[in-house]
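Let's practice the habit of predicting before peeking. Look at the sequence and jot down your guess about where helices and strands might fall. Then scroll down.
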Amino acid sequence: MGIFGKKGEERENIRTSRGTEAHVSAAQEDPEKHIEHQDEITLQNQNTPPQPLQFDAALEKRVVRKIDRHLIPLVMILYLLAYLDRSNIGNARIAGMEEDFNLKPGQYEWFLTIFYISYILFEPLGMMWKVIPPHKWAAFTVMGWALCGTLQAATYSWSGMMAARFFLGVFEACFSPGIPFLLSFFYRRNELGFRCGLFLSAAPLATCFAGALAYGITSGDPKGISSWRLLFLVEGLPCVVAAVLTWFLMPDSPEKAKFLNAEERAVAKARSVRQTGSDGESRVGKVAWKDVGATLLDIKPWITGLMYFSCNVSFASLPVFLPTILLEMGFTKITAQGLSAPPYFLAFLLVILTCKIADLTSQRGLTIFILSLLGATGYIMLATATSTGVRYAGVYLAAAGIFPSIGNILPWVLNNQGSDTRRGTGIALLNLIGQCGPLLGTRLYPKSEGPYYRKGMWVCAAFMLFNSTLALGLRCLLKWENGKLDERYGVLEKGKGDEGLGEENEGPRYRYIL
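Done guessing? Here is the structure:
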């Protein structure tokens, strides 16, 4: 399919339907050219607002499936590798690192804390996804953490590992928080949660994989190198290869995706216009500073930031301390590595399932409420029980509540900000507040409080209950604000819309996802 237009003066709008002819007309010319094709392309003057876009549903599904096949596996693999490099410090600890470094009480916790200090300081650079072409920014950040993660194997002192962990946090802060924002360029509101869930599910999958991989590496007796050093090398070096591949495989936007043909790119652009109205064709490359200020003055992203903080107290601490907790339940070092994997596989499945359900029902707040109660129950079991079986069952419930809650909070932020800049700012604010949670979480399990770590378990349980309260309160606020929007614009009728107005930017067609 040919796409015609004058750069800087005209832009494309697409209307496709089965069995129709394609009509091409220039806004400044009277003659019409008739081309036998499935799609109709109307060229308009840039100052003219885009008309409502309709196209064949089967063609749109084909485009979404293609994006799914090329983008989602890529970001999942990258996040899995990032999370491996972030959390394998817990497996390295019981594989001999603590003894080799002769760590004093409290020094191991600093390896965790320093990562999140740099993560918080550099997290606002996540907005660079909107400024720099994503394939360049992604490749740069992946290569950065790949080198830092691998070089952990070459450290011989506490200060050397502290430096490696600091810069690991810098590069991961520039990558992971911005991926849900990037996905919002490719998917509509009712599609985004499931894809964010797939992306976030890589975290429990990585933790599961880390336990199994650590079991395989540390169960042997490698010659010439410590088991924990080999662990860092095996999990760090593949990221170098991933960084190179990212440069060539990461699409910058739907309409520039190389894996789509001309017809499919036109539909992708039409979907973008349907999302955001006239902003649909210029979503990367500029920041609306007025929207940044409006987001900072809005209470809703601050509430989701507190929710993320609450979940991150547990989210950051459980993977890096679980091998130690299992070890002090009475299991051997090797068995503890293996038993740390199954709870996270359950969490992996629940992240995907709950995000899909929330997309279909538009009830993300209630989903987070239920999951938070589930996680709190698991921590209460860990805090009160002495039986190994009951405590290990509590680990399953805790993991099943924490990870899916995070998976639903991220798309909830994106669902409820009325412009691309506001969505990006909302994600930045979410992480700026939320990533302070690990500063507390990584201090909850001092060795002196083993083997039950009751104080840490009670703190995590309290924060999960707090998270459930915030989720319910925010849902009530959003429902009230939807009522005010209905009073102002009238009740939104499905299938009807105003010309030139997107569904995801503030305006008559915009409503909050509950």
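How did you do? Residues 314 and 460 are 6 Å apart (CA to CA).
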